[in-house]
Structures are given as structure tokens and as C-alpha cells.
Design a protein that fits this description.
three-stranded mixed beta sheet
């Protein structure tokens, strides 16, 4: 398995998140100082302190969304790469290749794949077309710590649309003709326990089951199309 990453793009996004986090802490300090100045500035100081507090939480939420996506501790590619270890070098994985692409793509003779990672742990069920997470209390606590599960299929469809738009913009008509991307939902948290009904709309696996999908994949793309896809998907990473 070959790996391509747009390091410049990742560094830029992480920098935005870190700046937002630092700014939120600065606003908290400013708000705290303002709350101590009521004798001098009266109710205006209290109002300013509340505004600073609200702004700090908004900035913290914004910054956290960046650091949890691109921060070294949270990046999902580290788990995905480990799960794909042993897949042959005819396949190439693209991680954070460009702002207009899904975060994780794999292209090779078996086709073009969109990996949609989820870091949620605990019991995760997909039954009767619906997602759920263990007990209500456990799901709420994990949601606060890890982020909500939401509907992963919605994320997969969004990623497919994003990829299609990028290929229409940068790829040739010959490249796009007959090309169908294949989404895979991957739960990367080792503590995740999946309870999935048979024949889900898209493959749902844990990291350890990821490589088997590629080992079983039949060759459907000619080498010329694979090389063209690699060139288009890696165009911005190659320019860094």
C-alpha cells in the first residue's frame, strides 16, 4: 500500500485549530478580568464578561473541530493505515489530499474507495435501518466524550458527492465515464462492538476487517485509469 498525504494542508488546518483554541483561552481570561471590574465599570463589565465567555466557548468549539480532525492524537489515518497493512502496492491511499476531497481515499485495480472512519466506541447497532448506541445513558456519556454518532450513511453520501464534484472539475470525461466510487464505513475505536444487520447498504467494518475487503476485491479498473486517478487525486499533494 502506497500512502500520499498533503502535509501542507494538514499543517494549515491544525494551525487554525490551535489559534482558535488559544484565542478562546485568551477570551476567558479577558472575561474573568472584566468580571472583577464591576466597581469601576458597573454592569457594563458584567455584560462584557458574558459576551467574552460566549465568544470563548464558540471559539473553543470551532478550534476543537479542527484539532479533533487533524491533530496527531485524533487523526483517523493512523488507524486506517494500520488496518490496510499488507495490502499490495498496486493500491494507493490518499489522506487529506485536498480541501475539496474526502479525507481518506484508496484507489487501485479493485476500484476507487471512500473510507468513512468513525472513532465511536462502545456498543453500536445498525438494525432495521436505524443506528443506536447501547444504553441511553452510556450513549450520552460517550457522545460528550467522542462526539455523536449521527447517521454515518449521510456522511458517506456527502463524501461521495464531494468526490464526484472534484473529479468532474479536475478529471477528464474518459476518466469519469463508468467510474463508481465505493464507500466503506470503518469504526476505528478498538472498544467498538458492532451489531450490524445482514446486508447493510454499504460495508461496515472495524479496522481489523478492512484489509480483507481489498484482498477480496476483483480487478475492475485498468492500470491506465488507476494511474490517471492517482494523478488527479494527488495533484495538490504533489504541489506542496
Amino acid at each position: 500500500m502506497q500512502i500520499v498525504e498533503n502535509k501542507k494542508y494538514v499543517r494549515g488546518r491544525l494551525k487554525i485549530g490551535n489559534i482558535a483554541n488559544l484565542a478562546s483561552m485568551g477570551l476567558l481570561v479577558v472575561g474573568f478580568v472584566a468580571s472583577l471590574k464591576t466597581d469601576t465599570f458597573g454592569q457594563g463589565a458584567i455584560l462584557f464578561a458574558y459576551i467574552a465567555l460566549i465568544g470563548a466557548f464558540l471559539l473553543l468549539s470551532f478550534g476543537r473541530s479542527f484539532t479533533r480532525r487533524w491533530g496527531p492524537r485524533f487523526r483517523q489515518d493512523q488507524w486506517l493505515v494500520d488496518g490496510l497493512r499488507g495490502v499490495d502496492n498496486r493500491y494507493t491511499m490518499f489522506n487529506y489530499a485536498a480541501p475539496g476531497l474526502p479525507d481518506h481515499l484508496v484507489v487501485g485495480p479493485g476500484g476507487l474507495f471512500v473510507l468513512v472512519p468513525r472513532s465511536n466506541g462502545g456498543t453500536i447497532r445498525f438494525q432495521n435501518g436505524r443506528w443506536s448506541r447501547g444504553s441511553l445513558a452510556g450513549g450520552l456519556l460517550r457522545g460528550l466524550a467522542e462526539g455523536g454518532l449521527g447517521n454515518p450513511f449521510t456522511d458517506a453520501n456527502r463524501a461521495l458527492g464531494q468526490l464526484a464534484g472534484y473529479l468532474r472539475k479536475h478529471g477528464s470525461e474518459e476518466l469519469i465515464a463508468g467510474l463508481e466510487a465505493k464507500p466503506i464505513l470503518v469504526f476505528t475505536n478498538p472498544s467498538a462492538r458492532l451489531e450490524v444487520a445482514p446486508n447493510p447498504p454499504i460495508p461496515i467494518v472495524q479496522t481489523k476487517g478492512l484489509r480483507q475487503i481489498f484482498r477480496r476485491a476483483k480487478d475492475t479498473l485498468p492500470s491506465e485509469k488507476v494511474e490517471e486517478l492517482k494523478r488527479v487525486l494527488g495533484r495538490e499533494a504533489a504541489d506542496e
